[in-house]
Specification:
alpha+beta; SH3 type barrels; Alpha-Beta Plaits; five-stranded antiparallel sheet; four-stranded antiparallel sheet
Length: about 475
């Protein structure tokens, strides 16, 4: 066997290369260390075959009188340089793989191209004995010609290197590039691919992204801005509208208190004025839900302030309490005459900010309907009071005491000043023909609030894991 190697070096070299390619395909890509070890072992064996055959990759073949042997030495010498370039690329790539991410893959590709270029130049200089300076000059001139031909593509490539180095965005980030908004689904050498809200893919060249104004809506990950625009008739005094909309913001519990929400006039027209409500939420998934809730709550506060839009289908002679009975869902089972009688018995009660309207454990002797203002609802978890939600115009309190004389399971404290209407317990008697349906609606409301209460209590705080000094330092590398 040992005489076969120097006598047939080309056959042995080809066999080794075929074995390397076969093992590379057979070994799973996840076993990086095994693949790298096999590649290094075969390369060392290939180098040993060349050395025993008297072939050196650092000098031209020494058998000019034998064309076949000369060709064999030349092919194996060039093959050694390419094999070496591939092996070095694999070793470096294994080290970069631990970093992960698209930037690591891009750096691996750039280093691989540079290493193969060095291998080709080395083979030309040492094995083929070509004038490297002239070759480099010629290749440089060709590179200039090719570079001018593919100038835009090269601009995208180098811009991609800059973007992957500075990392203004990552995969799955929601970004806006030059007015094009979407989630990043792919970043390649030439472009960035965005999944838009319409479900299409927008391909933005990296050269455009590198020069454009990039807005990353996913950073920081715990702050997301929402905007809601509402049109109010221009006849309404701006101070009145702004007061109602500020109550809307204070009544939206999902807004982050660390970043104050604001109301501002966006535009003014002859017939209406547009007001913009701005705030921040912790999760991007809740942006649409919170925005829709703010829009509905803004309408309720504006209506409570006396604002109407266009043609009002309600009876213009109705009082505020009569209109509330039309809006509150639990009273829909009552007839119009019953609502009229109930509205006549409703008594207005004014309250100030930070006033306990219904305390925890207190038995309510009436049903209360909020007319104006914002109310905070807190429940007791066995140790302290926890805010579970906020209430606004058209919402009711005290159903527990009305139904069964049970004490309140929550504390209702006012955030702003306002007014509510009181309906005495004696009104829920036989004089209402649809009393059973009303009681069923109140019971259903009580069950819903009990579910919310249980959900808030069962929410456990995130357990903080204790970490040592080494872990703290590693996180700040």
């Amino acid at each position: 066997m040992f005489t076969f190697v120097p006598d047939h070096p080309l056959v042995c070299g080809v066999i080794l290369i075929l074995i390397d390619l076969a093992l590379w395909q057979m070994i799973d890509a996840s076993q990086r260390k095994v693949r790298m070890s096999v590649r290094i072992s075969i390369f060392i064996t290939f180098s040993w075959v060349l050395t025993n055959a008297g072939i050196s990759p650092l000098q031209p073949p020494l058998w000019p009188e034998d064309p076949l042997l000369q060709l064999t030495g030349t092919v194996l010498g060039i093959g050694w340089w390419l094999f070496a370039a591939r092996t070095v690329t694999i070793v470096l790539g294994s080290g970069l793989a631990a970093r992960g991410g698209h930037s690591a893959r891009l750096l691996h590709d750039v280093m691989g191209a540079a290493i193969f270029l060095i291998g080709i130049v080395g083979a030309a200089a040492y094995v083929l004995q070509l004038p490297v300076k002239g070759l480099l000059a010629t290749s440089g001139a060709m590179a200039i010609v090719v570079g001018l031909a593919v100038q835009s593509t090269l601009s995208d490539v180098f811009s991609g290197i800059v973007l992957n180095t500075t990392k203004p965005y990552h995969l799955n980030d929601l970004i806006s590039i030059d007015g094009t908004q979407g989630h990043v689904v792919e970043i390649d050498w030439r472009s960035t691919h965005l999944m838009t809200d319409e479900g299409g893919i927008a391909v933005v060249p990296n050269s455009v992204a590198a020069k454009a104004r990039i807005i990353n809506l996913s950073r920081p990950g715990d702050v997301h801005r929402i905007r809601t625009v509402i049109a109010v008739p221009s006849s309404v005094r701006p101070r009145l509208a702004i007061d109602a909309l500020e109550k809307t913001l204070r009544g939206t519990r999902a807004l982050l208190s660390a970043r104050p929400a604001k109301v501002s006039v966006k535009s003014s027209h002859l017939e209406y004025t547009e007001y913009e409500l701005k705030g921040f939420v912790a999760s991007a998934k809740n942006k649409n839900d919170v925005s829709n809730m703010m829009f509905d709550l803004a309408h309720r506060h504006l209506e409570a302030a006396g604002v109407t839009w266009g043609h009002n289908p309600e009876n213009p002679r109705w009082s505020r309490q009569r209109r509330l009975l039309e809006e509150v869902r639990v009273f829909r089972s009552l007839s119009s005459n019953e609502r009229d009688r109930l509205a006549d018995e409703m008594t207005p009660i004014d309250y100030q900010a930070d006033e306990v309207v219904l305390g925890f454990g207190e038995v309510a002797d009436c049903l209360m309907i909020i007319s104006t203002g914002v109310m905070s609802v807190s429940i007791h978890d066995g140790e302290k009071l926890i805010e579970a939600g906020r209430m606004g115009p058209g919402e009711i309190m005290g159903e527990e005491g009305i139904l069964a004389g049970n004490p309140s399971r929550g504390e209702f404290r006012s955030i702003t000043s306002g007014q509510f209407f009181r309906i005495g317990k004696d009104m829920f008697g036989s004089q209402l023909e649809h009393l059973h349906e009303l009681q069923s609606a109140l019971s259903h409301l009580q069950e819903q609030r009990e579910e919310i209460r249980e959900a808030v209590i069962l929410q456990k705080p995130v357990e903080t894991k204790k970490k040592g000094l080494l872990s703290w330092l590693l996180q700040r590398r």
